[in-house]
Design goal:
Layout (H helix, E strand, L loop, with lengths): L2 E5 L9 H8 L4 E8 H4 L8 H19 L5 E5 L1 H12 L3 E5 L4 H16 L3 E5 L21 H18 L52 H5 L1 H4 L12 H6 L4 H11 L1 H19 L21 H9 L5 H13 L4 H14 L4 H11 L5 H12 L14 H8 L4 H6 L16 H18 L1
Parallel strand pairs: 1-2, 1-4, 2-3, 4-5
This protein binds flavin-adenine dinucleotide (FAD).
Family: Belongs to the DNA photolyase family.
GO molecular function, one term: DNA binding
Cofactor: (6R)-5,10-methylene-5,6,7,8-tetrahydrofolate; FAD
Length: 445
Protein backbone atom coordinates (compact mmCIF):
# COMPACT_ATOMS: atom_id res chain seq x y z
CA UNK A 1 0.00 0.00 0.00
CA UNK A 2 1.59 3.31 -1.07
CA UNK A 3 2.09 6.33 1.13
CA UNK A 4 0.37 9.33 -0.39
CA UNK A 5 1.84 12.78 0.03
CA UNK A 6 -0.81 15.47 -0.42
CA UNK A 7 0.52 18.88 -1.57
CA UNK A 8 -1.55 21.96 -0.69
CA UNK A 9 0.20 25.20 0.28
CA UNK A 10 3.62 23.68 -0.22
CA UNK A 11 4.08 23.51 -3.97
CA UNK A 12 7.73 22.50 -3.92
CA UNK A 13 9.78 19.35 -3.70
CA UNK A 14 12.78 20.88 -1.93
CA UNK A 15 12.86 21.59 1.80
CA UNK A 16 9.37 20.18 2.37
CA UNK A 17 8.71 18.96 5.93
CA UNK A 18 5.76 16.61 5.36
CA UNK A 19 7.18 15.13 2.19
CA UNK A 20 10.42 14.43 4.03
CA UNK A 21 8.54 12.59 6.77
CA UNK A 22 6.70 10.53 4.15
CA UNK A 23 9.98 9.67 2.46
CA UNK A 24 11.54 8.68 5.77
CA UNK A 25 8.53 6.50 6.59
CA UNK A 26 9.48 4.23 3.73
CA UNK A 27 7.64 4.26 0.52
CA UNK A 28 6.85 4.27 -2.21
CA UNK A 29 5.58 7.82 -1.81
CA UNK A 30 2.96 8.88 -4.33
CA UNK A 31 2.65 12.70 -4.46
CA UNK A 32 -0.73 14.22 -5.34
CA UNK A 33 -2.45 17.59 -5.70
CA UNK A 34 -6.19 18.33 -5.80
CA UNK A 35 -7.71 21.33 -7.58
CA UNK A 36 -10.53 21.97 -5.13
CA UNK A 37 -13.90 22.64 -6.77
CA UNK A 38 -15.40 23.81 -3.47
CA UNK A 39 -13.15 26.84 -3.90
CA UNK A 40 -12.83 27.09 -7.69
CA UNK A 41 -16.58 26.92 -8.41
CA UNK A 42 -17.18 29.96 -6.20
CA UNK A 43 -14.78 32.23 -8.09
CA UNK A 44 -16.79 34.73 -10.11
CA UNK A 45 -14.01 35.60 -12.55
CA UNK A 46 -12.70 32.94 -14.92
CA UNK A 47 -9.52 34.89 -15.61
CA UNK A 48 -8.16 34.45 -12.13
CA UNK A 49 -4.49 35.23 -11.57
CA UNK A 50 -4.28 33.09 -8.43
CA UNK A 51 -5.72 30.03 -10.18
CA UNK A 52 -3.28 30.63 -13.01
CA UNK A 53 -0.40 30.91 -10.54
CA UNK A 54 -1.37 27.69 -8.76
CA UNK A 55 -1.78 25.92 -12.10
CA UNK A 56 1.65 27.07 -13.24
CA UNK A 57 3.24 26.07 -9.92
CA UNK A 58 1.61 22.63 -10.00
CA UNK A 59 2.90 22.14 -13.55
CA UNK A 60 6.41 23.07 -12.39
CA UNK A 61 6.11 20.75 -9.41
CA UNK A 62 5.13 17.85 -11.68
CA UNK A 63 8.19 18.62 -13.83
CA UNK A 64 10.42 18.60 -10.72
CA UNK A 65 9.14 15.13 -9.80
CA UNK A 66 9.64 13.94 -13.37
CA UNK A 67 13.27 15.00 -13.21
CA UNK A 68 13.65 12.50 -10.38
CA UNK A 69 11.89 9.68 -12.24
CA UNK A 70 8.62 10.16 -10.38
CA UNK A 71 5.51 12.23 -11.11
CA UNK A 72 2.63 14.15 -9.57
CA UNK A 73 -0.95 12.86 -9.75
CA UNK A 74 -3.36 15.75 -10.13
CA UNK A 75 -7.09 15.58 -9.39
CA UNK A 76 -9.91 18.06 -9.94
CA UNK A 77 -13.07 17.85 -7.86
CA UNK A 78 -14.64 18.12 -4.42
CA UNK A 79 -12.00 16.92 -1.93
CA UNK A 80 -14.20 14.39 -0.14
CA UNK A 81 -15.35 12.81 -3.40
CA UNK A 82 -11.82 12.82 -4.80
CA UNK A 83 -10.51 11.16 -1.65
CA UNK A 84 -13.15 8.44 -1.81
CA UNK A 85 -12.02 7.66 -5.36
CA UNK A 86 -8.32 7.78 -4.40
CA UNK A 87 -8.84 5.38 -1.51
CA UNK A 88 -10.65 2.94 -3.76
CA UNK A 89 -8.19 3.16 -6.62
CA UNK A 90 -4.81 3.35 -4.86
CA UNK A 91 -5.57 1.90 -1.41
CA UNK A 92 -3.04 4.02 0.48
CA UNK A 93 -1.66 2.80 3.78
CA UNK A 94 -0.97 6.33 5.02
CA UNK A 95 -1.40 9.93 3.94
CA UNK A 96 1.15 12.60 4.79
CA UNK A 97 0.62 16.32 4.38
CA UNK A 98 1.58 19.75 5.76
CA UNK A 99 -0.76 21.53 8.14
CA UNK A 100 -3.10 24.27 6.96
CA UNK A 101 -4.50 26.39 9.79
CA UNK A 102 -7.47 28.05 8.09
CA UNK A 103 -10.93 27.06 9.29
CA UNK A 104 -12.06 25.65 5.92
CA UNK A 105 -8.93 23.52 5.62
CA UNK A 106 -9.23 22.21 9.17
CA UNK A 107 -12.78 20.98 8.58
CA UNK A 108 -11.77 19.45 5.23
CA UNK A 109 -8.78 17.67 6.76
CA UNK A 110 -10.84 16.21 9.58
CA UNK A 111 -13.31 14.81 7.04
CA UNK A 112 -10.48 13.30 4.98
CA UNK A 113 -8.88 11.86 8.11
CA UNK A 114 -12.18 10.14 8.99
CA UNK A 115 -12.50 8.68 5.49
CA UNK A 116 -8.95 7.35 5.66
CA UNK A 117 -9.36 5.87 9.10
CA UNK A 118 -12.53 4.08 7.98
CA UNK A 119 -10.44 2.56 5.20
CA UNK A 120 -7.70 1.54 7.63
CA UNK A 121 -5.23 4.20 6.52
CA UNK A 122 -3.53 6.74 8.78
CA UNK A 123 -3.31 10.53 8.38
CA UNK A 124 -0.18 12.48 9.41
CA UNK A 125 0.25 16.24 9.23
CA UNK A 126 3.30 18.40 9.83
CA UNK A 127 4.40 21.97 10.36
CA UNK A 128 5.84 23.52 7.23
CA UNK A 129 3.99 26.74 6.40
CA UNK A 130 5.32 28.73 9.34
CA UNK A 131 8.32 28.55 11.65
CA UNK A 132 6.55 28.20 14.98
CA UNK A 133 3.03 27.04 15.74
CA UNK A 134 0.91 28.61 18.46
CA UNK A 135 1.86 26.09 21.15
CA UNK A 136 5.57 26.71 20.57
CA UNK A 137 5.69 30.43 21.39
CA UNK A 138 3.79 30.94 24.60
CA UNK A 139 3.88 33.35 27.49
CA UNK A 140 5.47 32.10 30.69
CA UNK A 141 2.00 31.25 32.02
CA UNK A 142 1.39 29.02 29.00
CA UNK A 143 -1.10 31.36 27.32
CA UNK A 144 -0.84 32.77 23.80
CA UNK A 145 0.80 36.13 23.11
CA UNK A 146 -1.61 38.78 21.87
CA UNK A 147 0.85 41.63 21.36
CA UNK A 148 3.55 41.47 18.71
CA UNK A 149 6.67 42.93 20.38
CA UNK A 150 6.86 40.51 23.34
CA UNK A 151 5.90 37.69 20.95
CA UNK A 152 8.79 38.61 18.66
CA UNK A 153 11.26 38.70 21.56
CA UNK A 154 10.17 35.29 22.77
CA UNK A 155 10.12 33.91 19.17
CA UNK A 156 13.71 35.02 18.72
CA UNK A 157 14.87 33.50 22.01
CA UNK A 158 13.19 30.20 21.23
CA UNK A 159 14.71 30.08 17.77
CA UNK A 160 18.19 30.69 19.13
CA UNK A 161 17.84 28.03 21.79
CA UNK A 162 16.37 25.44 19.40
CA UNK A 163 19.06 26.08 16.84
CA UNK A 164 21.87 25.50 19.28
CA UNK A 165 20.12 22.52 20.86
CA UNK A 166 19.60 20.37 17.80
CA UNK A 167 21.76 19.02 15.09
CA UNK A 168 21.47 16.37 12.44
CA UNK A 169 18.93 15.37 9.91
CA UNK A 170 16.52 13.50 12.14
CA UNK A 171 16.22 16.22 14.77
CA UNK A 172 14.54 19.54 14.76
CA UNK A 173 14.87 21.26 11.45
CA UNK A 174 14.26 24.69 12.76
CA UNK A 175 15.90 26.54 9.97
CA UNK A 176 17.68 23.68 8.28
CA UNK A 177 16.48 22.56 4.90
CA UNK A 178 14.86 19.14 4.70
CA UNK A 179 16.97 17.11 2.27
CA UNK A 180 14.09 15.79 0.16
CA UNK A 181 16.16 15.19 -2.93
CA UNK A 182 18.43 12.85 -1.00
CA UNK A 183 15.54 10.39 -0.77
CA UNK A 184 14.01 10.59 -4.22
CA UNK A 185 14.48 6.83 -4.57
CA UNK A 186 11.55 6.55 -2.13
CA UNK A 187 9.20 8.27 -4.58
CA UNK A 188 6.87 6.16 -6.68
CA UNK A 189 8.62 5.74 -10.03
CA UNK A 190 7.01 6.19 -13.43
CA UNK A 191 4.66 8.51 -15.24
CA UNK A 192 1.46 9.87 -13.72
CA UNK A 193 -1.86 8.39 -14.77
CA UNK A 194 -3.34 11.77 -13.73
CA UNK A 195 -1.47 14.55 -15.53
CA UNK A 196 -2.10 18.23 -14.76
CA UNK A 197 -5.42 19.28 -16.36
CA UNK A 198 -5.28 22.40 -18.51
CA UNK A 199 -6.73 25.66 -17.20
CA UNK A 200 -9.40 25.46 -19.90
CA UNK A 201 -10.44 21.97 -18.79
CA UNK A 202 -11.23 23.51 -15.40
CA UNK A 203 -13.10 26.41 -17.00
CA UNK A 204 -10.40 29.04 -16.44
CA UNK A 205 -8.36 31.25 -18.74
CA UNK A 206 -4.96 32.89 -18.24
CA UNK A 207 -5.17 36.27 -16.51
CA UNK A 208 -1.73 37.34 -17.64
CA UNK A 209 -0.49 38.99 -14.46
CA UNK A 210 3.25 39.18 -13.79
CA UNK A 211 4.42 36.98 -10.93
CA UNK A 212 7.47 38.20 -9.00
CA UNK A 213 10.51 35.90 -8.91
CA UNK A 214 11.21 33.53 -6.01
CA UNK A 215 14.69 34.94 -5.52
CA UNK A 216 15.42 38.36 -4.09
CA UNK A 217 18.76 40.10 -4.36
CA UNK A 218 21.05 40.24 -1.34
CA UNK A 219 21.12 44.00 -1.73
CA UNK A 220 17.36 44.34 -1.37
CA UNK A 221 17.31 42.30 1.84
CA UNK A 222 20.39 44.08 3.19
CA UNK A 223 18.83 47.52 2.74
CA UNK A 224 15.23 46.42 3.45
CA UNK A 225 14.98 48.41 6.69
CA UNK A 226 15.77 51.63 4.80
CA UNK A 227 13.62 51.03 1.72
CA UNK A 228 10.58 49.09 2.90
CA UNK A 229 8.37 52.07 3.76
CA UNK A 230 8.51 53.90 0.45
CA UNK A 231 5.87 52.75 -2.03
CA UNK A 232 7.45 54.62 -4.94
CA UNK A 233 10.52 52.39 -4.97
CA UNK A 234 11.00 48.65 -5.23
CA UNK A 235 12.04 48.24 -1.64
CA UNK A 236 10.23 45.07 -0.54
CA UNK A 237 10.62 41.44 -1.52
CA UNK A 238 7.24 40.75 -3.25
CA UNK A 239 7.55 37.20 -1.92
CA UNK A 240 4.07 37.10 -0.35
CA UNK A 241 2.44 35.00 -3.08
CA UNK A 242 5.26 32.45 -2.85
CA UNK A 243 4.95 32.13 0.92
CA UNK A 244 1.24 31.74 0.52
CA UNK A 245 1.50 28.77 -1.84
CA UNK A 246 4.77 27.38 -0.54
CA UNK A 247 6.63 27.83 -3.81
CA UNK A 248 9.47 28.91 -1.51
CA UNK A 249 10.40 27.68 1.94
CA UNK A 250 9.84 30.03 4.85
CA UNK A 251 12.79 28.40 6.62
CA UNK A 252 15.15 29.17 3.77
CA UNK A 253 14.11 32.83 3.62
CA UNK A 254 14.26 33.21 7.40
CA UNK A 255 17.78 31.78 7.39
CA UNK A 256 18.77 34.32 4.80
CA UNK A 257 17.10 37.10 6.75
CA UNK A 258 19.05 36.15 9.88
CA UNK A 259 22.26 36.59 7.95
CA UNK A 260 21.32 39.76 6.16
CA UNK A 261 18.69 41.85 7.89
CA UNK A 262 16.92 41.54 11.23
CA UNK A 263 14.08 43.87 10.15
CA UNK A 264 13.24 41.53 7.30
CA UNK A 265 13.21 38.60 9.71
CA UNK A 266 10.84 40.53 11.94
CA UNK A 267 8.38 40.97 9.06
CA UNK A 268 8.44 37.24 8.45
CA UNK A 269 7.65 36.79 12.12
CA UNK A 270 4.53 38.97 11.77
CA UNK A 271 3.33 36.23 9.47
CA UNK A 272 3.89 33.58 12.15
CA UNK A 273 2.25 35.88 14.70
CA UNK A 274 -0.99 36.29 12.76
CA UNK A 275 -1.07 32.61 11.96
CA UNK A 276 -0.69 31.89 15.67
CA UNK A 277 -3.56 34.30 16.40
CA UNK A 278 -6.01 32.42 14.15
CA UNK A 279 -4.81 29.14 15.64
CA UNK A 280 -5.40 30.35 19.22
CA UNK A 281 -8.43 32.55 18.55
CA UNK A 282 -10.28 31.16 15.53
CA UNK A 283 -13.22 33.45 16.29
CA UNK A 284 -11.26 36.45 14.90
CA UNK A 285 -11.91 35.19 11.38
CA UNK A 286 -15.21 37.07 11.37
CA UNK A 287 -15.31 38.91 14.68
CA UNK A 288 -13.15 41.57 16.31
CA UNK A 289 -10.32 40.30 18.49
CA UNK A 290 -11.31 42.93 21.08
CA UNK A 291 -14.91 41.93 21.69
CA UNK A 292 -15.98 45.44 22.79
CA UNK A 293 -15.56 46.60 19.21
CA UNK A 294 -18.48 44.51 17.98
CA UNK A 295 -20.87 47.42 18.46
CA UNK A 296 -19.31 50.20 16.39
CA UNK A 297 -22.18 51.83 14.48
CA UNK A 298 -20.56 51.73 11.04
CA UNK A 299 -21.84 54.15 8.42
CA UNK A 300 -21.37 51.46 5.72
CA UNK A 301 -22.23 53.88 2.94
CA UNK A 302 -22.31 51.85 -0.29
CA UNK A 303 -21.33 54.76 -2.54
CA UNK A 304 -18.33 55.60 -0.36
CA UNK A 305 -17.27 51.96 -0.40
CA UNK A 306 -17.50 51.85 -4.19
CA UNK A 307 -15.41 55.00 -4.49
CA UNK A 308 -12.80 53.54 -2.14
CA UNK A 309 -12.66 50.26 -4.12
CA UNK A 310 -12.26 52.11 -7.41
CA UNK A 311 -9.55 54.45 -6.08
CA UNK A 312 -11.78 57.52 -6.38
CA UNK A 313 -11.83 58.99 -2.89
CA UNK A 314 -9.99 62.19 -3.77
CA UNK A 315 -7.15 61.26 -1.35
CA UNK A 316 -4.20 60.73 -3.69
CA UNK A 317 -2.32 58.08 -1.73
CA UNK A 318 -5.50 56.10 -1.01
CA UNK A 319 -6.50 56.22 -4.67
CA UNK A 320 -3.02 55.21 -5.82
CA UNK A 321 -3.06 52.22 -3.46
CA UNK A 322 -6.46 50.98 -4.53
CA UNK A 323 -5.59 51.31 -8.20
CA UNK A 324 -2.32 49.48 -7.68
CA UNK A 325 -4.34 46.69 -6.06
CA UNK A 326 -6.96 46.61 -8.84
CA UNK A 327 -4.42 46.68 -11.65
CA UNK A 328 -1.61 44.54 -10.30
CA UNK A 329 -3.03 42.35 -7.50
CA UNK A 330 -0.57 43.78 -4.99
CA UNK A 331 -0.34 46.87 -2.77
CA UNK A 332 2.58 48.18 -0.79
CA UNK A 333 2.33 47.50 2.96
CA UNK A 334 2.54 51.16 3.99
CA UNK A 335 -0.33 51.95 1.66
CA UNK A 336 -2.36 48.92 2.82
CA UNK A 337 -2.24 50.50 6.28
CA UNK A 338 -3.25 53.92 4.93
CA UNK A 339 -6.20 52.72 2.81
CA UNK A 340 -7.41 50.46 5.63
CA UNK A 341 -7.27 53.31 8.12
CA UNK A 342 -9.13 55.59 5.70
CA UNK A 343 -11.90 53.03 5.18
CA UNK A 344 -12.43 52.12 8.81
CA UNK A 345 -11.84 55.51 10.42
CA UNK A 346 -12.58 58.29 7.95
CA UNK A 347 -15.33 56.51 6.02
CA UNK A 348 -16.50 54.50 9.05
CA UNK A 349 -16.98 51.35 7.00
CA UNK A 350 -16.83 47.93 8.65
CA UNK A 351 -13.30 46.48 8.40
CA UNK A 352 -14.81 43.20 7.14
CA UNK A 353 -15.88 44.94 3.91
CA UNK A 354 -12.31 46.01 3.23
CA UNK A 355 -10.96 42.65 4.31
CA UNK A 356 -13.27 40.92 1.81
CA UNK A 357 -12.27 43.24 -1.00
CA UNK A 358 -8.57 42.59 -0.32
CA UNK A 359 -9.28 38.85 -0.16
CA UNK A 360 -10.74 38.99 -3.67
CA UNK A 361 -7.95 41.07 -5.15
CA UNK A 362 -4.62 40.31 -3.44
CA UNK A 363 -2.42 37.74 -5.12
CA UNK A 364 -0.63 37.27 -1.81
CA UNK A 365 -3.93 36.95 0.07
CA UNK A 366 -3.42 35.04 3.30
CA UNK A 367 -6.43 34.86 5.61
CA UNK A 368 -4.46 35.24 8.85
CA UNK A 369 -2.29 38.19 7.75
CA UNK A 370 -5.13 39.95 5.98
CA UNK A 371 -7.45 39.60 8.95
CA UNK A 372 -4.67 40.71 11.31
CA UNK A 373 -3.82 43.71 9.13
CA UNK A 374 -7.43 44.82 8.91
CA UNK A 375 -8.17 44.42 12.58
CA UNK A 376 -4.98 46.31 13.39
CA UNK A 377 -6.11 49.17 11.14
CA UNK A 378 -9.61 49.23 12.62
CA UNK A 379 -8.16 49.28 16.13
CA UNK A 380 -10.02 46.13 17.19
CA UNK A 381 -7.16 43.68 16.72
CA UNK A 382 -4.06 42.54 18.54
CA UNK A 383 -2.62 45.96 19.03
CA UNK A 384 -1.44 47.67 22.16
CA UNK A 385 -2.89 50.93 20.84
CA UNK A 386 -6.66 51.15 20.77
CA UNK A 387 -8.78 52.99 18.25
CA UNK A 388 -7.20 56.44 18.41
CA UNK A 389 -4.44 55.78 15.90
CA UNK A 390 -5.93 57.47 12.86
CA UNK A 391 -3.54 57.93 9.98
CA UNK A 392 -3.27 61.45 8.66
CA UNK A 393 -3.07 60.79 4.94
CA UNK A 394 -1.32 64.13 4.26
CA UNK A 395 1.51 63.45 6.69
CA UNK A 396 1.84 59.89 5.39
CA UNK A 397 2.11 61.32 1.87
CA UNK A 398 4.80 63.79 2.94
CA UNK A 399 6.78 61.18 4.84
CA UNK A 400 6.65 58.27 2.43
CA UNK A 401 5.93 59.65 -1.04
CA UNK A 402 7.06 63.26 -0.75
CA UNK A 403 7.61 63.79 -4.47
CA UNK A 404 4.39 61.94 -5.43
CA UNK A 405 6.27 59.34 -7.52
CA UNK A 406 3.91 56.63 -6.36
CA UNK A 407 0.74 58.69 -6.71
CA UNK A 408 1.65 59.77 -10.25
CA UNK A 409 2.43 56.20 -11.23
CA UNK A 410 -1.09 54.99 -10.40
CA UNK A 411 -3.25 58.13 -10.65
CA UNK A 412 -2.34 59.74 -13.96
CA UNK A 413 -5.01 62.45 -13.66
CA UNK A 414 -3.62 63.65 -10.33
CA UNK A 415 -2.78 67.35 -10.62
CA UNK A 416 -5.19 67.90 -13.53
CA UNK A 417 -8.72 69.33 -13.33
CA UNK A 418 -10.05 65.78 -13.67
CA UNK A 419 -8.90 64.90 -10.16
CA UNK A 420 -11.39 65.79 -7.35
CA UNK A 421 -10.60 68.99 -5.45
CA UNK A 422 -11.98 67.67 -2.18
CA UNK A 423 -11.61 64.25 -0.58
CA UNK A 424 -14.72 62.21 0.15
CA UNK A 425 -14.09 62.75 3.85
CA UNK A 426 -11.58 65.33 4.96
CA UNK A 427 -9.01 64.39 7.62
CA UNK A 428 -9.80 66.65 10.54
CA UNK A 429 -13.56 66.20 10.40
CA UNK A 430 -13.25 62.47 9.74
CA UNK A 431 -10.81 62.00 12.59
CA UNK A 432 -13.05 63.76 15.09
CA UNK A 433 -16.10 61.84 13.96
CA UNK A 434 -14.26 58.52 14.24
CA UNK A 435 -12.96 59.34 17.73
CA UNK A 436 -16.45 60.29 18.88
CA UNK A 437 -18.20 57.27 17.36
CA UNK A 438 -15.63 54.74 18.58
CA UNK A 439 -15.52 56.28 22.04
CA UNK A 440 -19.29 56.25 22.48
CA UNK A 441 -19.61 52.68 21.22
CA UNK A 442 -16.89 51.46 23.56
CA UNK A 443 -18.39 53.33 26.54
CA UNK A 444 -21.64 51.43 25.97
CA UNK A 445 -19.94 48.05 25.50
P1 LIG B 1 7.91 42.26 2.41
O1 LIG B 1 7.86 43.60 3.04
O2 LIG B 1 9.03 41.96 1.50
O3 LIG B 1 7.87 41.21 3.60
C1 LIG B 1 8.27 39.84 3.41
C2 LIG B 1 7.17 38.92 3.86
O4 LIG B 1 6.94 39.07 5.25
C3 LIG B 1 5.84 39.15 3.20
O5 LIG B 1 5.77 38.54 1.93
C4 LIG B 1 4.90 38.51 4.21
O6 LIG B 1 4.86 37.10 4.07
C5 LIG B 1 5.56 38.83 5.54
N1 LIG B 1 5.00 40.08 6.08
C6 LIG B 1 5.47 41.33 5.96
N2 LIG B 1 4.70 42.19 6.65
C7 LIG B 1 3.73 41.47 7.21
C8 LIG B 1 2.63 41.78 8.05
N3 LIG B 1 2.37 43.03 8.47
N4 LIG B 1 1.82 40.78 8.43
C9 LIG B 1 2.05 39.51 8.05
N5 LIG B 1 3.05 39.15 7.26
C10 LIG B 1 3.89 40.11 6.85
N6 LIG B 1 0.17 39.98 3.94
C11 LIG B 1 -0.08 38.85 3.30
O7 LIG B 1 0.83 38.03 3.10
N7 LIG B 1 -1.35 38.54 2.87
C12 LIG B 1 -2.38 39.40 3.06
O8 LIG B 1 -3.51 39.08 2.66
C13 LIG B 1 -2.13 40.63 3.71
N8 LIG B 1 -3.12 41.54 3.90
C14 LIG B 1 -2.83 42.73 4.57
C15 LIG B 1 -3.88 43.63 4.82
C16 LIG B 1 -3.63 44.83 5.49
C17 LIG B 1 -4.78 45.79 5.76
C18 LIG B 1 -2.32 45.13 5.92
C19 LIG B 1 -2.04 46.42 6.63
C20 LIG B 1 -1.29 44.23 5.68
C21 LIG B 1 -1.53 43.02 5.01
N9 LIG B 1 -0.49 42.09 4.77
C22 LIG B 1 -0.79 40.90 4.15
C23 LIG B 1 0.88 42.33 5.28
C24 LIG B 1 1.84 43.01 4.29
O9 LIG B 1 1.25 44.18 3.79
C25 LIG B 1 2.24 42.12 3.12
O10 LIG B 1 2.72 40.88 3.60
C26 LIG B 1 3.34 42.74 2.28
O11 LIG B 1 2.98 44.03 1.84
C27 LIG B 1 3.61 41.85 1.07
O12 LIG B 1 4.58 42.42 0.24
P2 LIG B 1 6.06 41.82 0.18
O13 LIG B 1 5.96 40.36 -0.09
O14 LIG B 1 6.86 42.66 -0.71
O15 LIG B 1 6.49 42.02 1.70
Amino acid sequence: RPIIFWHRRDLRLEDNAGLYRAQKAGGPVMPIFIFDREILDKLPEKKDARVEFIHQSVTELAAAYQEHGSDLRVFYGHPKKVWKAIIEEYQPGAVYTNRDYEPYAKVRDLAVKDLLEEAGASFHDFKDHIIFESDEVQKNDGGPYTVFTPYWRKWRTILDSRMSQFEGEELSYYLKPYPNTKYTDRLLAGKSDRPVPSLAEMGFAPAGIDIPPTEVSRKLIRTYDETRNFPGIEGTSRLGIHFRHGTISIREKARRAMDLNETFLKELVWRDFYSNIIQSFPRVVDAPFKKDYENIPWENNEADFKAWCAGKTGVPIVDAGMRQLNESGWMHNRVRMIVASYLTKHLLIDWRWGEGYFADKLLDYELASNNGGWQWAAGCGTDAQPYFRIFNYDSQQKKFDADYTYVKQWVPEYGTPDYPKEPLVEHKWGRERALRVYKEALAEA
